Amino acid sequence: MKLTNKFNIPQTFVNVLKRPTYSKGKANLSVTQLINSPKIVALTKKFDDELEQDVAEMVWSLFGSAIHNILEHGKDSNHTVEERIHAEIDGWNLSGAIDLQITNDGGLSIKDYKTTSVWAVMNEKIEWEYQLNCYAWLIEKVKKIPVTDLGIVAILRDWKSREVGTKEGYPEAPVKEVPITLWTMAEREEFIKARISAHSACEFALETDGDLPDCTPEEMWEKPAVWAVRKVGGVRAKSLHDSEDEAVKALEAVGKGYEIEHRKGERTRCQTFCPVSTWCNQYQTYLKEQA
């Protein structure tokens, strides 16, 4: 991947980002890759030499790495920090780097640090549940120690004290611990095997020049098209509806001064956050259909 610096950010940042410390070791997949879209992982591998990322887009990831390094110095005697664990499953080597393991009377508690947004902790992020349950599988598989609980320690980069109490569920402090549902060992293993099967299919298609399996709506962060009933000339919707017929009925109920706006669906990840959308036939076909 090529690193660009379009906004002339100081060279110190560029130098640090050119020397990444992350490595999945001998693993076929890291947990982060496992829970990611198989198509994105495969296309990233294929077009790695052509990919570009700007330093400005990586500043917050750099900040997150710094937070991790600082918090390592705060460990207690019963803490294990930044340990990478490997395990074999269905012929694949899976690895995961676990931020914090806390030994307790019943087993181990797993914590993962996230430098993230307030929105992320106020809304469900199923990826966190996937990630931490994969870590739990690795620990119980390799260490043979039961995992008692899972949690995200979220450091909120956009937290504002004046917002506390004004919005339901708004965090009271810039650090928020989010409990994560712990699955059974059987549920974890079933999930991991299904993900490996999906990645295996993508790898085979890549190696044989076949068509890669499409991303799912969830993997594309797809928002479906809706019909909004709003005040004439307004922006905020009074109500949202899955069909035009439903919107018409709602419009009749609210009376004069309102109108219907058709809001097209969008694939947020593809549009803004996917590094390989340029080479993705699924997204390029979607753009043509939208046009």
Task: Tell me the layout of helices and strands.
Layout: E1 2-4, H1 11-17, E2 29-30, H2 31-34, H3 38-46, E3 52-54, H4 59-72, E4 79-89, E5 92-104, E6 107-116, H5 118-122, H6 126-142, E7 147-156, E8 175-180, H7 185-207, E9 222-223, E10 226-231, E11 237-241, H8 244-254, E12 258-263, E13 266-267, H9 268-273, H10 281-290
Describe the protein in words.
This protein has helices spanning 11-17, 31-34, 38-46, 59-72, 118-122, 126-142, 185-207, 244-254, 268-273, 281-290, and strands at residues 2-4, 29-30, 52-54, 79-89, 92-104, 107-116, 147-156, 175-180, 222-223, 226-231, 237-241, 258-263, 266-267. Strand 10 (226-231) and strand 11 form a beta hairpin. It is built from 10 helices and 13 strands. The chain folds into 2 domains: 2-207, Lambda Exonuclease, Chain A (Alpha-Beta Complex), CATH 3.90.320; 222-290, no CATH class. With 291 residues, the chain is an alpha/beta fold. Strands 2, 4, 5, 6, 7 and 8 form a 6-stranded mixed β-sheet that branches. Strands 11-10-12 form a 3-stranded antiparallel β-sheet, with helices on one face. A two-stranded parallel ribbon has the order 1-3. It is 36% helix and 27% strand. The longest helix has 23 residues, at 185-207. It is globular and about 65 Å long.
CATH class of the largest domain: Alpha Beta
Order of H and E elements: EHEHHEHEEEHHEEHEEEHEEHH
Rough outline: globular
Share of β-strand residues: 25-35%
What is the residue-averaged pLDDT? 93
Q: Do you know the CATH topology of the largest domain?
A: Lambda Exonuclease, Chain A
- The helical percent reads 25-40%
Helix tally equals 10
Q: What's the count of strands?
A: 13
Oligomerization category of the chains in this entry: single chain
Corresponding CATH architecture of the largest domain: Alpha-Beta Complex
Radius of gyration: 22 Å
Tell me the major beta sheet.
6 strands, mixed
